Amino acid sequence: MAITETISAQRPQQQDFERLMQSATGLVFSAALQPIARLKIADLLADGPHPVAQLAAETGSDEDALYRVMRLLSSVGIFSELPGKAFAITPASYFLRSGVPGSMREMVLWITNPFHFQVHGELSHSIATGLPAVEKVCGQSAFDAIFSRPEVAYDFNSAMTCFSRHLAPKLLEAYDFSGIETLMDVAGGHGAILSEVLTRYPNMKGILFDVPNVIEEANCHICELKMEERCRMIHGDFFETIPAGADAYYMQHILHDWNDERCLKILANCRRALEGSEAGRKQGRLLVVDNVVPEDSEPHPSKWLDLEMLLMPGGRERTRGEWDALFAKAGFEITRIVPMKAAESVIEVKLRP
What we know:
Elements: H1 3-10, H2 14-24, H3 26-38, H4 41-44, E1 50-51, H5 52-59, H6 63-75, E2 79-82, E3 86-89, H7 91-94, H8 105-111, H9 114-120, H10 123-129, H11 133-138, H12 142-147, H13 150-174, E4 182-186, H14 192-200, E5 205-210, H15 212-224, E6 231-235, E7 248-252, H16 260-275, H17 278-283, E8 285-290, H18 301-311, H19 320-329, E9 332-339, E10 345-351
Parallel strand pairs: 4-5, 4-7, 5-6, 7-8
Antiparallel strand pairs: 1-3, 2-3, 8-10, 9-10
Helix pairs in contact: 3-6, 3-8, 5-6, 8-13, 13-14
């Protein structure tokens, strides 16, 4: 049957028009979320509904403009509008509050940062060339562009910590780390995930590996948790070398940042690190926490994150077949994939015999 005949048979409905327009206007809702999250409106509503006049006074905002933004967000359930131009939080805006269990405020601030609007506005460049749009917008690679802009870097770092805090209990519920003597977190940031794992497994030792300035900041975090006797910190560049000394190497949202060529450099260094110790050769493993993209048309967070990788660092989210092929080229094989109560899975990888 011809495509036109199929469409004719389906008879587009009003909801199809609305779905298209909802997608087209999505940036409006993202733009509305940014200042509302920045102003901590959800925190102000934690003790009950407030009239917009009070919210405006407490945040130094224009009352009419704030009302119109809150009305829009209420129309999609982020807030609830009450009589008298008052607003209340909903289950959705609960997660916009700061400091509450499951808070996603920092992640929302990063996703809706104006930096994203600038880069995503050049998606056509990536479609035409296959190259990251950020390089056209900023004249820099993604991470250079982010970290040369303090306000953008702050939102990015806060979002990554938020993500780790959100993921840690799901990781520990899904994957059994028993039997690992020393776990190295490669590009592990401030050590949020590694600290959680070490707390759960008191006989395990840890190594946090990242670039020098991150390790300096992480040192304070590790000391605060009194983990310094069990956790060493090493700085370096994973494209140059990854230290030996661990029997398991953990990489969370690292490989998805890079194309296959650059991933193979990282994996080659992982391989050399494992082969550098007897424990690594015998029972060493990589634990890769990343998305496995479903090979169907169903919605999945990996599909929008894949565009983030295309536009920013030039990486990609991968299907099971693409993961198999990548690891095989690097001399590894997937032993199992452990799903979590999250979009990501734990991909357990070992050296090929």
